[in-house]
């Protein structure tokens, strides 16, 4: 579930980055258009500044000239103006409509230039507003990216913690499996001992001497000791089985190795179940042949140990 949530967060980050790339691309195109407009406006202003500079230069030159020369130029200008008026009257008499039309066209061209400059200014302001909005959007995207990066770091730290816990659990399971293998070896040894006991008991005959009965008593006592060893081995197995049953209920961890070890232990218990009935039969023969108090007491203790071993075998199987 946490890995799926990490994948979803990663996908959300990629989507946000893709949207941010779109905003940045649009902003770059808008900035390029603004640069082109600014370049055009700059050229217009440069042309106007050039004309103004030339006019100022002419004015300065006129201010430095001789007063008489200026007066002469003024008179000459008046004469030119008079001649221009006369020429205008002559043109009006001959082709007034054509001249006026050309003058109107020239004025319209000038007005169009002024209009283009105004439009360029308006477009520049609009582009500036769009750029500011794009900048605000980029700021918001950066904040969201920062949040997502922080969240991704938290998820990564949590995944590292879970990985450490998994490693610890795997190590614990490996220790349990090793313990089960050692327990199986011990059970195999006890099974062999029980088999030897069965063979010893099978040699008992009803017509043997008291020395044989004493030997039988020793065999029974040895059987008791070996049965006690089996019980000491089986008891921790029962405790571990209950502990594993509690620890391995979590389905996130693999139980294949655990089940294999339990199966091996079950096989050993099956072998034990085969030998135990034979041992019980032989003990019954001993009870019938020589019901001595010590022998009878030992046989009863052996039966109790066998019953406990069977209980453990049921838990393992």
Automatic annotation (TrEMBL):
<keyword id="KW-0175">Coiled coil</keyword>
<dbReference type="InterPro" id="IPR010307">
    <property type="entry name" value="Laminin_dom_II"/>
</dbReference>
<protein>
    <submittedName>
        <fullName>Laminin subunit alpha-4</fullName>
    </submittedName>
</protein>
<feature type="coiled-coil region">
    <location>
        <begin position="70"/>
        <end position="97"/>
    </location>
</feature>
<dbReference type="GO" id="GO:0007155">
    <property type="term" value="P:cell adhesion"/>
</dbReference>
<dbReference type="Pfam" id="PF06009">
    <property type="entry name" value="Laminin_II"/>
</dbReference>
<feature type="domain" description="Laminin">
    <location>
        <begin position="221"/>
        <end position="316"/>
    </location>
</feature>
């Amino acid at each position: 579930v946490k890995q799926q949530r990490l994948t979803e967060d990663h996908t959300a980050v990629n989507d946000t980055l893709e949207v941010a790339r779109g905003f940045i691309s649009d902003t770059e195109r808008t900035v390029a258009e603004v640069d082109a407009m600014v370049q055009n406006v700059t050229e217009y202003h440069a042309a106007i500044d050039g004309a103004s500079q030339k006019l100022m230069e002419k004015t300065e030159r006129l201010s430095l000239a001789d007063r008489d020369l200026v007066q002469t130029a003024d008179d000459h200008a008046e004469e030119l103006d008079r001649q221009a008026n006369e020429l205008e009257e002559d043109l009006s008499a001959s082709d007034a409509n054509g001249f006026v039309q050309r003058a109107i066209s020239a004025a319209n061209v000038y007005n169009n230039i002024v209009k283009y400059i105004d439009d360029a200014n308006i477009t520049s302001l609009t582009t500036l507003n769009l750029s500011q909005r794009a900048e605000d959007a980029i700021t918001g995207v950066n904040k969201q990216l920062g949040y997502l990066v922080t969240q991704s770091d938290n998820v990564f730290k949590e995944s590292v913690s879970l990985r450490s816990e998994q490693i610890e659990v795997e190590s614990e399971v490996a220790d349990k499996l090793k313990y089960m293998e050692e327990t199986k070896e011990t059970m195999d040894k006890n099974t062999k001992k029980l088999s030897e006991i069965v063979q010893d008991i099978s040699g008992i005959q009803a017509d043997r001497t008291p020395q044989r009965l004493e030997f039988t008593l020793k065999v029974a006592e040895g059987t008791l000791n070996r049965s006690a060893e089996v019980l000491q081995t089986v008891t921790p197995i029962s405790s571990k089985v209950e502990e594993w049953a509690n620890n391995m209920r979590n389905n996130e961890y693999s139980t294949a190795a655990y089940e294999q070890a339990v199966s091996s232990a079950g096989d050993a218990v099956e072998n034990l179940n085969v030998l135990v009935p034979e041992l019980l039969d032989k003990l019954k023969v001993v009870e019938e042949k020589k019901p001595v108090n010590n022998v009878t007491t030992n046989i009863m203790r052996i039966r109790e140990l066998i019953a406990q071993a069977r209980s453990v075998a049921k838990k393992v199987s």
